[in-house]
């Protein structure tokens, strides 16, 4: 797939566009842009980061008015491979069923961007990348980043691509936090926003689960105080346990029961030992071991921390509605009935805050027993809702329908 | 009867409501079902419309149709809206199903400059006759549910409603008496026979001195 964004001329009046340089190829990993060379990113922790790299994937074509761009924000362990195969696992894109020609997020109609978040490990600057000051991986020298910092890195990417205004920002879970942060901080650059299965602040329970994961990683001797890359080691076991614990929170009891029940794994009777007797154990171990092949342990620490720190009300005097005062953005808030990690009650709080500023908001709670993961799965009601909302928003934006693909 | 956006005719009482709404205004439709009225108002009156609907099926149908609708209800979701957020707030055939109709009515006129409210009239002569002669709870096309399954927990007569408006300092700008199919009977609901002849009633309300804040 060719990348039309790279053939677009950069807007000459952008401070950063002159300093952005493409270091990647158009195939395989997708483009990587070095940004912030002249104007470093001011992080919420007070540190400055620059230059930094943003790796992203782009699909479709930016129209002449540059008004049809959709930004997709990925979740904690997601990445930019939203609609094409993952380079490490070979699995289809994580929203392959939603993004593509003729699909709900129609790449014949929209120009779709999905950047790897700051702090992650699929090409954007994060703790495993080389610190230009030392020539070695950042490790724990990487500054603690926030959801706001992730968004500001994306702002620089859009500046470089010459996109003043996004047609839509869409994301689930941590992606939804970025969506809310985008709409709150840059309402003039967002026409519509779809926060899915998310919250305006990370709950105590969710911080607690993240802490379990971080402690599992840090308890692994191979973590080496965060310096494992320089010491030629990888904290496989700790990261796998972190993933196993987290994975349970993405599902639901009915979904687990339907999938596994108490069935045994490749055996007729209990072993009276600590092998994976049950299918559910075997499944979790598999989830853990495949995860460590594609994810960096320190990135997991940094990104979970960014989610823990997220509190949109705190930035606005403790009143969530103040984050959206006068917002012109059209919102579509989506939650799932069986999601206990980001329950409907949290989405409803966002809706109430948006109502308090008389914002244009739709809110749908989709019936599903698949837990938090439902937003990644085939949920026709969710897809119909998103399709209808995007169509309605596109009509208000004056975007033409896609021409039939030849 | 005008055709609805999908070529379907809209209910005659909804058409009457639509006629009361000024073009280009801001409208909140509470209990908007699948958004039929909102869609009609958007297509023919270019309103900036929002909806609240209790049933998930209704909300999904409306949002999938490109309308701005949230899942919620009149009792819990009106308090958040700021005063004067809308030109019109519409509550069609829903007031009698709310837990606190008085507070709902106050909220309607707090967040809307104008409220359009319709409800079934329990004082309708057929209802009275069913109770008086048959000794049964009334059922008719406007009150179709049996007593054990009705969502209507706060039924009232036209006279009761007018008294509540008076109590709250709400001004009745316009009113209509409707038959059991929603057709106007050519008589305002403030007419002395309205409470007897109206199967349902429709009111256009504005804030008086007491209700304004």
From TrEMBL, chain A:
It is found in: Cytoplasm. Residues 1-33 are annotated as: Disordered. It holds the Pfam family Abhydrolase_1. Residues 1-10 have a biased composition (Polar residues). Its EC number is 2.3.1.31. GO terms for molecular function: homoserine O-acetyltransferase activity. Substrate binds at residues 243, 373. It comes from the Bacteria. Keywords: Acyltransferase, Amino-acid biosynthesis, Cytoplasm, Methionine biosynthesis, Transferase. One of its GO terms (cellular component) is cytoplasm. The active site is at residues 173, 339, 372. The keyword Metal-binding does not apply. It is an enzyme of class 2 (transferase). GO terms for biological process: homoserine metabolic process; methionine biosynthetic process. It catalyses: L-homoserine + acetyl-CoA = O-acetyl-L-homoserine + CoA. InterPro entries: AB_hydrolase_1, AB_hydrolase_fold, HAT_MetX-like. Pathway: Amino-acid biosynthesis; L-methionine biosynthesis via de novo pathway; O-acetyl-L-homoserine from L-homoserine: step 1/1. The keyword tRNA-binding does not apply. Residues 68-377 form the AB hydrolase-1 domain. Homodimer. Transfers an acetyl group from acetyl-CoA to L-homoserine, forming acetyl-L-homoserine. Belongs to the AB hydrolase superfamily. MetX family. This is Homoserine O-acetyltransferase. It comes from Roseospirillum parvum. The lineage of its organism: Bacteria, Pseudomonadati, Pseudomonadota, Alphaproteobacteria, Rhodospirillales. The gene is metXA.
From TrEMBL, chain B:
SUPFAM superfamilies: S-adenosyl-L-methionine-dependent methyltransferases (SSF53335). It comes from the Bacteria. Pfam families: MetW (PF07021). InterPro entries: Methionine_synth_MetW, SAM-dependent_MTases_sf. This is Methionine biosynthesis protein MetW. It comes from Roseospirillum parvum. The lineage of its organism: Bacteria, Pseudomonadati, Pseudomonadota, Alphaproteobacteria, Rhodospirillales.
């Amino acid at each position: 797939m060719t990348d039309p964004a790279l053939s677009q001329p950069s807007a000459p009046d952008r401070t950063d566009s002159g300093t952005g340089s493409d270091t990647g190829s158009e195939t395989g990993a997708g483009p990587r842009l070095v940004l912030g060379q002249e104007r470093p990113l001011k992080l919420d922790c007070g540190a400055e980061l620059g230059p930094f790299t943003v790796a992203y994937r782009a699909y479709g074509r930016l129209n002449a008015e540059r008004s049809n761009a959709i930004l997709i924000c990925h979740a904690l362990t997601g990445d930019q491979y939203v609609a094409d195969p993952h380079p490490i696992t070979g699995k289809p894109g994580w929203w392959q069923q939603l993004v593509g020609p003729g699909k709900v997020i129609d790449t014949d109609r929209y120009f779709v961007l999905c950047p790897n978040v700051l702090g992650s490990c699929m090409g954007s600057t994060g703790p495993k990348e080389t610190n230009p000051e030392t020539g070695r991986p950042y490790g724990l020298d990487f500054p603690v980043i926030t959801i706001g910092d992730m968004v500001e890195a994306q702002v620089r990417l859009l500046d470089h691509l010459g996109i003043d205004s996004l047609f839509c920002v869409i994301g689930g879970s941590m992606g939804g936090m970025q969506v809310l942060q985008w709409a709150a901080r840059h309402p003039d650059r967002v026409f519509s926003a779809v926060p899915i299965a998310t919250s305006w602040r990370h709950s105590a329970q969710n911080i607690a689960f993240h802490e379990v994961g971080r402690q599992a990683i840090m308890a692994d001797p191979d973590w080496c105080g965060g310096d494992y890359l320089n010491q030629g080691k990888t904290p496989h076991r700790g990261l796998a346990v972190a993933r196993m614990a987290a994975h349970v929170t993405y599902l639901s009891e009915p979904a687990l029961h339907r999938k596994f029940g108490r069935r045994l794994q490749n055996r007729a009777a209990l072993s009276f030992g600590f092998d994976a007797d049950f299918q559910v154990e075997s499944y979790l171990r598999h989830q853990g071991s495949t995860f460590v092949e594609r994810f960096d342990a320190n990135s997991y620490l940094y990104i979970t921390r960014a989610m823990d720190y997220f509190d949109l009300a705190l930035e606005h005097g403790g009143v969530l509605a103040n984050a959206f005062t006068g917002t012109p953005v059209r919102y579509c808030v989506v939650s799932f009935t069986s999601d206990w990690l980001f329950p409907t009650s949290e989405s409803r709080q966002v809706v109430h805050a948006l109502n308090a500023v008389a914002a244009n908001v739709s809110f749908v709670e989709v019936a599903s027993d698949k837990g938090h993961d439902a937003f990644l799965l085939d949920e026709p009601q969710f897809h119909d809702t998103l399709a209808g909302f995007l169509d309605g928003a596109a009509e208000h934006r004056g975007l033409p329908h896609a021409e039939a693909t030849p | 009867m005008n055709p609805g956006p999908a070529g379907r005719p809209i209910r005659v009482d909804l058409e009457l409501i639509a006629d009361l709404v000024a073009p280009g205004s801001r409208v909140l439709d509470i209990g908007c079902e699948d958004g039929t009225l909102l869609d009609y108002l958007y297509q023919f009156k270019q309103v900036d419309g929002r909806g609240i609907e209790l049933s998930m099926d209704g909300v999904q149908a409306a949002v999938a149709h490109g309308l701005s609708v949230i899942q919620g209800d009149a009792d819990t979701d009106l308090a958040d809206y700021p005063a004067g957020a809308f030109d019109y707030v519409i509550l069609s055939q829903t007031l009698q199903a709310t837990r606190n109709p008085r507070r709902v009515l106050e909220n309607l006129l707090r967040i809307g400059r104008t409220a359009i409210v319709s409800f079934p009239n329990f004082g309708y002569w057929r209802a009275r006759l069913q109770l008086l002669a048959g000794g049964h709870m009334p059922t008719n096309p406007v009150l179709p549910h049996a007593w054990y399954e009705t969502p209507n927990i706060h039924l009232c007569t036209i006279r009761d409603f007018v008294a509540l408006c008076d109590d709250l300092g709400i001004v009745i700008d316009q009113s209509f008496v409707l038959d059991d199919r929603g057709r106007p009977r050519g008589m305002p609901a403030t007419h002395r026979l309205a409470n007897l002849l109206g199967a349902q009633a429709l009111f256009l309300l504005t804030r008086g001195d007491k209700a304004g804040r």
